[in-house]
Amino acid sequence: MTEKLILDGNRVADWMKEVLVERIGVLSKRGIVPCLATVLVGSNPSSATYVKMKGNACRKLGMRSIRVDLPENTTTSELIEEINKLNEDPNVHGILLQHPVPPHIDERTAFDAIRIEKDVDGVTTLGYAQNAFGIAQFPSCTPAAIMAILAYYDLEVAGKHAVVIGRSPILGKPVSAMLLNSNATVTTCHSRTANLEEIVRLGDIVVAAVGKPNFVKGSWIKQGAIVLDAGYNAGNVGDVDYKSCLLNASAITPVPAGVGPVTIATLLKHTVDAAER
């Protein structure tokens, strides 16, 4: 069997963080400490864990982390008021509103309240549009992480057929745009795509972002394809059936330790970028 390339996200993230430490050191000499503010509405335990992880990651690199915890009954206007306080704080360089918010909140309006220069998670409508044009300062972090993994391992994108399974505005759609801007031919699939298995089999690059555990089967994967699993489900399970997909793939991300660590490193990078600007 041909040797498989396991796309180690921890390795990519560690390399990114090494570079960031140097940049943070330069900023500190100017009296600037990159600062990420995270906003959590309600008490969703998974969201609380993610916010804690991001805060810890900041501190390990010598960055500041501000955490804003709001009660479950917070209104859209109250949430926007808190976001605007962070927008006006010159010591805050990046703002992350943890998804999902409680259902009574207008999440899109809240996302769009974040100033573009502090939208380090790439969630605003303007940031999405800039990403489509290939000019985003801060593209959505998970799509940017996928592109970073491909670049780190020097995997060719131009001229390849990329199949993206998922069309969310912060993952499937923006990664489709980024791949297209990198000269791939892109097919974006979703829950209503007919003949999904046959379409996935055409992919030289397959991005799984559907939010269903072990959804993509090994029989769907073309021999020699690159498989990037952007899913994370209960029990540390991705959207790809890893063992069966490994048989045909030439390169594949594991879950955990694949796209996830690079997503967090990308968020930190964007915050440092914002501080430098």
List the defining traits of the structure above.
single chain; 277 residues; alpha/beta; Rossmann fold; 2 domains; six-stranded parallel beta sheet; 10 helices; 42% helix
Give an account of the 3D structure.
This protein has 277 residues and is an alpha/beta fold. The protein is built from 10 helices and 9 strands. It has helices spanning 9-29, 45-60, 76-88, 107-112, 125-132, 141-152, 172-181, 196-200, 242-248, 259-276; strands at 5-6, 35-41, 64-70, 94-97, 161-165, 185-189, 205-208, 226-229, 251-252. Helix 2 links the parallel strand 2 and strand 3 (64-70). Helix 6 packs across helix 7 and helix 6 (141-152) crosses helix 10 (259-276). The longest helix has 21 residues, at 9-29. The N and C termini lie far apart (49 Å).
Give a concise summary.
The protein is of the alpha/beta class.
Report, as a whole number of angstroms, the end-to-end distance: 49 Å
CATH class group of the largest domain: Alpha Beta
**Would you give the CATH topology of the largest domain?**
Rossmann fold
Helix content: 40-55%
Q: Return residue spans where pLDDT drops below 50 for at least 5 consecutive residues.
A: none
* Cα radius of gyration in angstroms: 19 Å
How many structural domains can be distinguished in the coordinates? Answer: 2
> Topology as H/E string?
EHEHEHEHHHEHEHEEHEH
